[in-house]
Amino acid sequence: xxxxxxxxxxxxxxxxxxxxxxxxxxxxxxxxxxxxxxxxxxxxxxxxxxxxxxxxxxxxxxxxxxxxxxxxxxxxxxxxxxxxxxxxxxxxxxxxxxxxxxxxxxxxxxxxxxxxxxxxxxxxxxxxxxxxxxxxxxxxxxxxxxxxxxxxxxxxxxxxxxxxxxxxxxxxxxxxxxxxxxxxxxxxxxxxxxxxxxxxxxxxxxxxxxxxxxxxxxxxxxxxxxxxxxxxxxxxxxxxxxxxxxxxxxxxxxxxxxxxxx
Length: 262
What we know:
alpha+beta; Fructose-1,6-Bisphosphatase, Chain A, domain 1; D-Maltodextrin-Binding Protein, domain 2; seven-stranded mixed beta sheet; 8 helices
């Protein structure tokens, strides 16, 4: 099992980096990119679709019997209990506007439990990765969540999507500020979760995230010594989950602040 996990982890790291190179090609030629709207503040580009097809083809070649859950194309049912969960470009709104804060996300789950997570940010060359029981790493070096015990010691990542009530996140941000904290948002939920895992952010909270945006980062946070609100393995891949994460010293505070808000 450990050998298989290691193999899947290395496969995901290599694939995320190759997909990132493909994405960078589009990012450097934005003038020729086709962009569409999927809804309020929800964009998709030709790059999203092409990078996802590239990732899917690689998975189909190496793990043909596994399932695939992705943002831009239909789910593939597998027969092994394994499912690859992919977001070709998380932070599309940044990507299409030339803001270098976007990432490739590849996770692998077994019966709904995440066992491998990779978040690769092509613009910086940073690759965050981890596997269940194996720790979390940034470009091969171990990472740890923040040891802060107060929200006054750093920033809390916050997310908002059109699946949630706008006033809820406004209420939560007000509560964070009242605790002496600061909120942070860079429009890439997966990247902010990676920043929690590496101690750059104290925690991250969002009312609802799709699996392809959050399961990789949540695994990284746990493997880096942090705490996450556990997702239901029976429903998370198809329905997403509420996300509350943080270093051990602030998680309970973030959970308390979120209680009653969403």
